[in-house]
Amino acid sequence: MPDPGERWGATAFWTVAPGRGELRPTPLPAFGPNDVLVRAEVSAISRGTESLVFQGKVPPELYASMRCPFQEGDFPGPVKYGYCMVGVVERGPESLVGRRVFSLHPHQDRFIVPADAVVPVPDDVPSDRAALAANLETAVNILWDALPPVGARIAVIGAGVVGCLTAWLAARIPSARVQLVDVNPARAATAEALGVAFAAPGEALGDCDIVIHASGHPDGLVTALGLAGFEATVVEASWYGTRPVAAPLGAAFHPRRLRLISSQVGAVAPAMRPRWGYRDRLTLALDLLRDSRPDNLLTGSSLFADLTNIFPEIAMTPGDRLCHLIRYGGSR
User: Fold this and answer.
1) 20: helix, coil or strand?
2) Is the Cβ–Cβ distance between 328 and 304 less than 8 Å?
3) What pTM, to 2 d.p., does this model score?
4) In this predicted model, what pLDDT tens digit does every residue of 194-234 receive, in sequence order?
């Protein structure tokens, strides 16, 4: 059989300059004995990190640490970036051929990666929903950092995809009081569909044990600190890129003895790190997606062939979109 890297080419989406992308021919590497060839079905655009990458807002001092798996090129561009991919294995180990898999891979219609870089999608998880796995993995890590106890009073600030998924998971904790807080009243319907209470910032219940900030906006951090009770934990899950953030650490911050910690998916949370690896965490996220409620976060889709035209709008003026999918054909 001819080498897949010689028989087939591929097409990938590249950010070529801040705010501008292109679909470019991409040669496939030689196929190795421990590799898989994957045909893309559907990928998702991350509204957080990926949008900042597209806008050229990765700080130079973070160029190395913010690289994603199978990235090509360098920040600010040209760079091939992305990490929410579902596809079908066309060649590789017999146990994987024909199976749908999730991979932390940029937007590309075919790709070759090591077999251990893909995780099988459960048969009862549709491909569209499986594209949320990377965001749900982030939500899992946030809660592992927060360590909410039974009955915790929890506020999640920011009803984007990660915030919604974090609140949805937190609401499963027995007797927990969970509120999803956002400035957009349209997010109330999304929260209801996820089984989570919703509040505008000025109406949210305070005296929280744990507050998770995932809005990506400095004003959301102000709200988060204001809702935290005495000796509460505030988890900062937003990433601002090059945007300066003025955190209000005066006033009641010290008298209330607040604990402010960061959460980032690039490392497994310390409480779980001795026993859990990246693959374990991603497998857990895919298993959690057997529940159909996250389908409410899938708010639109476009064809891969149109990605150059629609990516600027999604990244810079998303409107009420949550998770936008890119279809390569044949997803289910």
Assistant:
1) strand
2) yes
3) 0.94
4) 999 999 999 999 999 999 999 999 999 999 999 999 999 99
Mean pLDDT by groups of 10 residues along the chain of 332 residues: 56 96 94 97 90 91 92 95 97 98 98 98 98 98 98 98 98 98 97 98 97 95 96 94 82 92 95 97 98 97 95 85 88 40
Distance, CA of 187 to chain centre: 18
Task: Give me the amino acid identity at 18.
Answer: P
**DSSP per position, 277-314:** -HHHHHHHHHHHTTSSGGGGGEEEEEEGGGHHHHHHHH
Q: Which two tokens stand for residue 231?
A: 């000796």
Cis status of the peptide bond prior to 78, with omega within 30 of 0: yes
Report the distance separating Cα 35 and Cα 9, nearest Å. 16
Q: For the chain, first and last CA: distance in Å? A: 29
| CA-wise closest residue to 23 among 98, 109, 105 | 109
- The H or E element that residue 257 is part of is none
The dihedral region occupied by 38, where left means phi > 0, alpha psi between -120 and 50, and beta the remainder, is: beta
For position 8, what pLDDT does the model report?
Answer: 61
Check: CB of residue 145 under 8 Å from CB of residue 261: yes
* Position 42, amino acid: V
Q: What is the pLDDT at residue 7?
A: 52
* Helix, strand or coil, per DSSP, at residue 171: coil
Counting beta carbons within 10 angstroms of the beta carbon of residue 299, is it exposed (0 to 12), middle (13 to 18) or buried (19 or more)? middle
CA distance 157 to 10: 40
Q: Hey, which residues does 11 pair with through a beta bridge? A: 25
Look up residue 126 and give its two tokens.
């549709």
